[in-house]
Amino acid sequence: MDRPTQTRLERSYALLGLVLIAPTVLVFCAVIVYPLVSAIYLSLFDIFTPTLEGSWVGLANYRELLAKGEFWVSLRTNLIWTVGTLTLQIVFGVGMALVLHQNILFRSLARSLILFPYFISTVVAVLVWKWLFNDLYGIMNHLMITVGILDFPIDYLGTMPNAMISVILVGAWKYFPFVVIAVLARLQTIPDQLYEAARIDGAGPIARFWDVTLPQLREVLVVIIMLRAIWDFKEFDLIFLLTGGGPVISTQTLPLLVYKEAFALNQMGMASAYAVIMMLIMLVFMILYIRKTREGDQ
Amino acid sequence: MKLRSILFNLFAWSIVLMVAFPLFWMLVTSVKPQFELFRRPPTFLPETWTFEHYARLLYDTNFLVYFRNSLVLSTTTTIVVVVIATLGCYSLVRFRYRGRESLAFLVLFTYLLPSVVLILPLYLMLVQLGLSNTIFSLVIAYTTFALPYALWLLRSFMAGIPEDLENAALVDGATRLGAFRDVILPQLLPGIISTALFTFILSWNEYLYALVLVNSDNARPLTTGVMNMLISSFNIEWSLLMAASVMMSVPLIIAFAFLQSYLTRGFGAGGVKG
Amino acid sequence: MADVSFQRVRKAFGSFTAVSDLNLEIDQGEFVSLLGPSGCGKTTTLRMLAGLEFPTSGDIRIGARVVNDVAPGDRDIAMVFQSYALYPHMTVEQNIAYPLKKRGVPKAERPAMVAKTAELLHLSELLKRKPKQLSGGQQQRVALGRALVRDPKVFLLDEPLSNLDAKLRTYMRAELVELHRRLGRTMVYVTHDQLEAMTMSDRIAVMEGGILQQFAPPTEVYNAPANRFVAGFIGTPGMNLIDGALAQEAGGWVFRGPGLAQAVPDLGPEATSGAACLGIRPEDLVIGDGPIETQVRLIEQTGHENIVVVEIAGGPRLTGRVPGHRLWRLGEPVRCGINAANVHVFAAGPTGVRLNAPIQGAVYSMQQSEAVQ
């Protein structure tokens, strides 16, 4: 008696659903899935960028890159950048969110000002910071010397470790507002009763932060950290525009290496191999994050 | 108690001002005459105000061309992506068919995917199609990050609309698409608007694809265009660049002002139970 | 002829069976409640009838027509949702007019129909407001109005009163009954509130675990529950259910449980010796006189009557219902008895079937359905 088939109505609904998703699927296949597969395919070739002619080399690109020091150096640089900027973003972001959660004068104006670095173009951010960092006329050197931190002007972007520190700082400045928005949104949903209960139990402001606020923020912080780790890891614009990977290759992260191989050294196949390896490394974070959001959905 | 609050306000605002200082400095620099830039110590507020850099930007450089390109590019991308994503997320959230779950997974996956992985094959593809150096090629490329992003954002808005609203419309005699138009779309509007604004900002600010795919001033958007002004000049005119930065940020400020009101409006909640 | 019928309807979500093998025939003009705890399949059943869920197998009929393939809008039904599901961007007037618009009622005729419905539900003053500007009770009436305006064949109501406060709920219950009488339309009403089901329905379909347990008029559900689940679910306080064993002795069937032995007359042919369950309604427990020795453990005074919980030494606790002036002290020993004519016997297990012989006529219906409240 059981009819395993769907009713006609149900089938027509499913069909409509497929029609509605069709444009998405088509675009996805054309501009994401196909290129993704090609990237892996390309990495098996030796391709000269200007002519786009190439020959099959199999896994040679991978063997070569894993043997080359530059890959490992860039990976290390990439990790230093990611961990450095991410840490600052989280610390400043949470701190700023706590401050903005309080009742301060012109709170919404303060919030807008804080969020602005996140919304402006990286190009704008970099231009402004390059001007601030200008060795001769930059306000940064002037301020540092006036305050007495520096005795003489320094080169912020052309020497190490200054370049790395500068890049990390600018990255933190540009992206910490994301943490502020997310944490602020979560802070507003913590029920007041929790704080009242803690106060009745005799907890001071510091104890209330550790025992009430932080545990409540845990979930959202885990998600923010994973998401920002992924985004920071693949950051290209900011570093490329600030230092171009320099001095020499001291701030050259993997995305910059891919770009350099493909468009400066004209090794498209090799660049693809770098890109694929980079994606594999990121896959770990991505799967962790996707798992986490799945949990959240249920 | 009073004193503590004053001190806290001072503390909070000094941090806020420090964070905002680079933006303040950008504005100040853009209205200083060239000679004042090289004054030591630097002047905090311009002694002479001038808009000559803005005038030069508009009349002597390609800024307006870039601006127009960016506007066309971002608007087109936003419209294409938001239309596709609105239909797509309706399907993803409210219909049942095989492969729906894996598709949602793919969306999230591509949302996190680094551009540098896709850029090489995309570059090859667009060159082979003869589309490189066109705004259209950038629209295609921007879809790779904007569509997953818009789908992901809209999905949560869509999920916030109570299913019973659609069901009620169905029982009242609407078809699925009728219910979508009459009931879901009006409810989704705030979500669509904020998704559109975010997508616009994302496209407006994009740099890497523009750098790789477009090599002519006719199609160059602001990001690479303004950056070119920095690289191609012998002696860097900081005031001009800061004026360009300010102008470039104006559409973002407008979008941002809109977003503030839309972001505070409830995600979902909708009409059920007041 | 049945107005709504379910024939061998099954609904599975993946491996989970929400409704299994449901057969239900609802008569023209009848008010039927689907009653059960949450997750029992009652809402799924209603949604299948509305066309919002699709049966995995089986047929659903409205009138003579199998509606499995008919879109919700073409089934000639109207539904009131638990959340009301008012369209937030439309005014009350537009909300009520929406089904008319979708059914192609000419624009000129709509205002009069809306006005008539609004008057019936005392909404005339509110027509220009948005749902957000209405109280819960007003929203509920708009939801009703949207259902009433087009005079459908069947009304479906999914816990429509559950978001109202207690007083308003009592009032709306009476209103709905009145409305049903006036319209004479078939109504299918989903609720988890037995009081609503008992007071409003012509018949109640009690569901549990996706299975229809009993489909009968309220008094019958109360006085002759079909199985142990129904017995325990219906009635406040609940029926005392004591596990023990049945044995056939010289004088007939005897139930023996911890601390008590009770002769049970009139068992049906299915009765067998062995594990069984004795059910006693609180009003059938006689406190203060009888063969069972107990101690008073708890007294709840509600004013006009007292709920008294007594404990059989080393055995179960029993709940009784006595008039408000009868008082005991906690811990006081008291003798109890059982009104033998009204005991229920069920086979062992959570849904053990009723073993009593079918009752003749509704002997005590009125008094006891009052007791439910």
Can you offer a commentary on this structure?
- The complex is a heterotrimer of chains A (about 300), B (about 270) and C (about 375).
- Helices cover about 75% and strands about 5% of the residues of chain A.
- Chain A contains 12 helices and 2 strands, in the order αββααααααααααα.
- In chain A, β1 (about 45-50) and β2 (about 55) form a beta hairpin.
- Chain A is flat.
- The mean pLDDT of chain A is about 85.
- Chain B is mainly α.
- In chain B, α11 packs antiparallel against α12.
- With about 375 residues, chain C is an alpha+beta fold.
- A 6-stranded mixed beta sheet of chain C has the order 6-7-8-3-9-10, sandwiched between helices. A 5-stranded antiparallel beta sheet of chain C has the order 13-12-11-14-19. A 4-stranded antiparallel beta sheet of chain C has the order 2-1-4-5, with helices on one face.
- Chain C is elongated.
- The interface between A and B is large, with 82 and 84 residues.
Biggest sheet of chain C: strands side by side, in what order?
6-7-8-3-9-10
Give the strand content of chain C. Answer: 35-45%
Structural class of chain B: mainly alpha
Strand content of chain B: under 5%
Largest interface: A-B, 82 and 84 residues
The 3D shape of chain C can be described as elongated
The tally of strands of chain C reads 19
Whole-number mean pLDDT of chain C? 88
- Kindly provide the radius of gyration of chain C, computed on alpha-carbon positions and rounded to a whole number of angstroms: 24 Å
Q: What is the SS-derived class of chain C? A: alpha+beta
The average pLDDT value of chain B, as a whole number, equals 86
Low-confidence stretches of chain B: 264-274
Helix content of chain C: 10-25%
Low-pLDDT windows of residues of chain C: 361-373
| Secondary structure tally, helices of chain B | 12
Biggest sheet details of chain B = none
